[in-house]
Design goal:
The complex is a heterodimer of chains A (about 190) and B (about 325).
Chain A: E1 2-5, E2 10-13, H1 22-42, H2 47-63, H3 73-94, H4 113-132, H5 135-146, H6 151-158, H7 165-190
Antiparallel strand pairs in A: 1-2
Chain B: H1 7-10, H2 14-25, H3 30-39, H4 49-55, H5 59-66, H6 75-103, H7 118-129, H8 144-147, H9 185-190, H10 199-202, H11 221-243, H12 246-259, H13 266-279, H14 283-296, H15 301-310
The chains are: A mainly alpha (about 190), B mainly alpha (about 325).
Chain lengths: ~190, ~325
């Protein structure tokens, strides 16, 4: 406890149990930024909104860094991201923005221009499919099959028993595969790529 | 039971594999990360934040300016996703939201660049933890607005990075943005998650989540909402100041003073008012505000700047 005396009054201030230093925070942000950003993207945010959302997520997370147990970082970040994403949605509802550069602001590992476009189209399709799924299924697919979290991490992130992960994952995959098949059948029939 | 294998490892159908590859390949642009670090007061951008901050304008323009501009083949893809965005976002808020909501209950999230200066950081930390307010009693919520308070230096290293603030009417897309604590947060601390489902999904979904996080901050529902609004207003003022719009700053602050009694962010508001008055050349008015700030909130990070303004060196 620290007492700060002034001419006017004596104010007692509580000190933090321990301060998390800036370099640790930076390391944390750098280490998990891409993960959070991608999670937000798969939650349907545009690249610009994912930027904003990621900032919010890390603002929250770095404030609470001391409380995040080692090994639980991605679970915490996912929950925070989901929370932030839902608020971004509410904001969007009030102020609809023109769908603009949805894909123009991301970077791919693939170098060629053709592959670039293909990958963006693929992500657009994926995001459309994910949006149709019940949230527990899209989330488990993103966490496990895209981001590669372990079963226990996934369970923690979603607040479900580890034993249910496998069956839920299976359901998610079935739903996704069905929709992918349906999509391609549709486009073949109509001859139009959407 | 061991972990299931990732789908990619098991050999998914080709069409699915393409989606997985595309998803895994996506990366945020480097500029996105550095902006985030800057906004958090970390990384190389932190100390020289003034210039980089001004460059970080609206998310859209920044993103366009700094990343791969390949909008060509994207328009059609863009349309596909824009319509379906809404439901996914809300749904995921339910998956993760309840879990984190309790833990962020009442946490006012504002993007600010905290300076590296150790003294100020120490001060800021102290302030954040202090239940002190000489003003009126407030909710038990702590405002990280204090903790993350930018240094008194007006470079205001924190750009008001654009976020969608719910009810602001300001014209500029840059202003008045704040990251609000969720209105979901507080009710969840007290009651069953299903009670706070978004109306459109309330019928569809049973509660998927367990309120696992302990609700450290037991803020009443009204307080969290109210805090969010206060944050939004103060943020609007801050954004105006960062843009050099001193009159706008004062307008937002007057708004804030009028609408909220008691107010949580008194020292912050005083600081912003002082700076705006200085910008307008109203030195004696600024000094008067500085006096109030230094006197009533001596250990606030803002007070150091106030003392500068006063030209005094009160400890």
């Amino acid at each position: 406890m620290v007492s700060v005396g002034t001419a006017m009054a004596s104010v007692t201030v509580l000190t933090t149990p321990f301060a998390v230093d800036a370099s640790r925070k930076e390391e944390f942000v750098r280490g998990y930024y891409a993960f959070v950003w991608r999670v937000l993207r798969r939650a349907g945010l545009s690249a610009a909104d994912a930027d904003d959302g990621a900032q919010r997520v890390f603002l929250i997370a770095t404030e609470r860094l001391a409380d995040i147990a080692s090994g639980s970082e991605r679970a915490f970040l996912f929950r925070t991201a989901a929370h932030v994403a839902s608020k971004a949605h509410r904001a969007h509802r009030r102020r609809p923005e023109a769908p603009g550069l949805e894909g123009g602001d991301t970077v791919d590992d693939a170098p060629s221009a053709d592959e670039l476009v293909d990958q963006r189209r693929a992500r657009a399709l994926l995001d459309g499919i994910l949006a149709e799924l019940p949230p527990e299924l899209s989330a488990i697919f993103v966490l496990f099959d895209i981001e590669g979290l372990k079963k226990n991490e996934v369970a923690e992130a979603l607040g479900i028993p580890p034993g249910t992960v496998a069956s839920r994952l299976k359901r998610a995959r079935e739903e996704i595969e069905a929709r992918v098949v349906r999509y391609h059948a549709r486009t073949r029939r109509t001859g139009v790529m959407r | 039971m061991s972990d299931p294998k990732r789908w990619m490892e098991e050999g998914p159908p080709e069409a699915v594999g393409r989606l997985l590859e595309a998803a895994s390949a996506e990366r945020p642009p480097e500029a996105s990360l550095s902006r985030a670090l800057t906004a958090l007061g970390l990384g190389a951008g932190a100390t020289g934040a003034a210039t980089t901050a001004s460059a970080a304008t609206t998310g859209a323009t920044t993103a366009v300016g700094t990343t791969v501009a390949g909008a060509a083949g994207v328009a059609s893809a863009g349309k596909a996703t824009s319509v379906v965005v809404a439901s996914a976002l809300v749904k995921w808020g339910l998956v993760g939201g309840a879990l984190v909501a309790a833990s962020v209950a009442g946490t006012a999230v504002v993007k600010r660049a905290a300076r590296h200066d150790e003294t100020e950081r120490a001060q800021a930390t102290l302030t954040a933890q202090a239940p002190m307010t000489r003003g009126p009693a407030t909710s038990s919520v702590n405002g990280p607005l204090n903790a993350a308070q930018a240094s008194p230096n007006t470079a205001e290293a924190a750009p008001s990075t654009p976020e969608a603030a719910p009810d602001t009417t300001d014209a500029s897309p840059e202003g008045a943005k704040s990251a609000n604590p969720s209105p979901l947060a507080a009710p969840l601390a007290a009651s069953a998650p299903s009670a706070v489902l978004h109306p459109s999904v309330r019928t569809a979904r049973k509660a998927l989540v367990t309120p696992a996080a302990p609700a450290n901050e037991a803020a009443a529902p009204m307080d969290a909402e109210r805090l969010a609004e206060e944050v939004a207003l103060v943020d609007r003022a801050r954004g105006a100041l960062a843009r050099g719009d001193a009159r706008g700053t004062l307008g937002a602050l007057d708004d804030y003073d009028a609408r909220f009694t008691p107010r949580k962010f008194v020292p912050e508001a005083l600081y912003l008012r002082m700076e705006a008055l200085l910008r307008l050349g109203q030195t004696s008015a600024a000094r008067a505000v500085a006096e109030r700030l230094a006197t009533n909130y001596p250990s606030s990070p803002n007070a150091a700047r106030a003392r500068q303004v006063l030209g005094a060196s009160i400890p």
